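subagent[fold] <- orchestrator: predict structure for attached chain, return C-alpha cells only, no commentary.
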Amino acid sequence: MNITVSPAIFSGQIDAPPSKSLTQRAIAAGLLAGGTTVIKNPSFCNDSVAAIGMARALGAMVKTEDDRIVIEAGERPSGQVFLDCGESGLALRMFSPVAALLSGDVTLTGKGSLLRRPVKMIGDALGQLGVTAATNDGFLPVRLNGKLKGGRALIDGSSGSQLLTGLLMALPLAETESRIDVANLTSRPYISLTLDLLADFGIRIENRDFMTFIIPGGQSYWSHEFTVEGDWSGAAFLLAAGAIGGGTGSKVDREPAGRVAVGNLNPDSRQADRAVMSVLESAGANVSVSLGRITASPSHLRAFTFDATDAPDLFPPLAALAAFCDGVSTIRGVGRLRHKESDRAEAIAGVLEAMRIGVRISGDEMAITGGQVQGAVVSSHNDHRIAMMAAVMAAGAAAPVTITGAEAVAKSYPGFFEDLARLGGRIG
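subagent[fold] -> orchestrator:
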C-alpha cells in the first residue's frame, strides 16, 4: 500500500496507542497465571495478535473484546506445539522460555523479516537450563526439546533484553531456584518494565544491578485485572511531529506553528522511550506535562546528541527531528539497529538521503545535518518505524512524500495514519 503525506501543520490532541510491549508481556503473564486474567486497554497490533495466538496454542482460552483481552487457564498441550511468532522479535524471544516451561516439544516459526533475525542466542541460553534447540543454520524455525529447569545460566545481553525477559517470566514457575548472570546488558529500562509487571502479578525476583537475577522457584502468578499504559514508542513520533510543527520548508527558515498534546501516557513510565521528552527539550522544543498529557510545540530547533543504545526504537523519530534541527545532531547506538524489521540504520539513512538531508554513519554513531527537507518517494522497507519516520518528516517537507509499503505500521500502531490525520496531517 502506498500513502502520500503532504506538507501540513500538526496541531491538536490525541491519545497514545496502548503499549504493545506491555500487552505482550501481560498476555504471557496471563497464560502463566491460573484463573482469569483481564488485560484492559490492550494493543491489538499485529505483534499482539501473534502473542494471542501463541497463548492459545499453549493451552490458554483467550477472548478478545473491544477494550480488553480475557485469558483463562486451560489444559497444557500434549505432543508437539507449533507457535507462529509473526514478525515479532519480542514474541519469539519471550515465548521461547515460556513455551519450553509448558511443553517439551515446541517449534517456533515466523514470517517476513523475522526469518532473517538470528536465533542462536535462544539455544545458547536454554541449553544451560535443560532445553536443546535445533535451528535452520542459526535462523527460524527453531525446535525446542526438553522442559525448562531451574538452575544457573550466563547469557549475553548485548543484542537486547527480550530473551532475558522470557527467562524472568518463565523461571519463577520452575521447581528450583535459578540464577541468571548477564553480560553487557542493553535496554535495561525494558527489564525494569518486565520486573514491574512481574511484581504486579505477584512474582518475586532479586535484581543485583542488572548483572545477576536470583529467581526463587515454585512461585505462582496472580490472575487479576491489568491495565496497559500508553506506548511511548508510538507517542515519540507524535511528539516529534509536534516539535517539528509542520508546514512547508526547513525548520530553520519558518516560523513556529502547531502544538501536539498526547494523552494516555505515564510520565513516570519505565518504558525506555520516555527519554524522548528530554531529547525534545535538549533540541529546543517546548515540552510540558499536565495530567498525564504531554505537549510538544515547535521553537527554533537546534542540534542534539543522544545515546539510543538502551532505547533503539527512538532512532527513527529522533532522526526525523534531527532533519529539522539547525546543525549536526548525533545519535549513538547504530549497532542496535542491524537486526530489526530492516537493517534500520541503512533504512533511516536511505530515507534521509532521499529527502536531501545529510547523514553519515561512522562506527556506532549516526550524524544528521538538518536542512531543507524535500519531497520524495521512499520505501518503508517493511519496517513500521521507518514508515512513521517518513510520514512525520513529510509534514514539514517542501513537497509531498509517498511511502511505499506503508501498511507496515500495523505491526505496532495500526491507527497511526488516522491519528496523524486527526492532528491535521494531509494523508492521501
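orchestrator: received. Logging for downstream: The longest strand covers residues 139-145. The chain has twelve helices and 24 strands.
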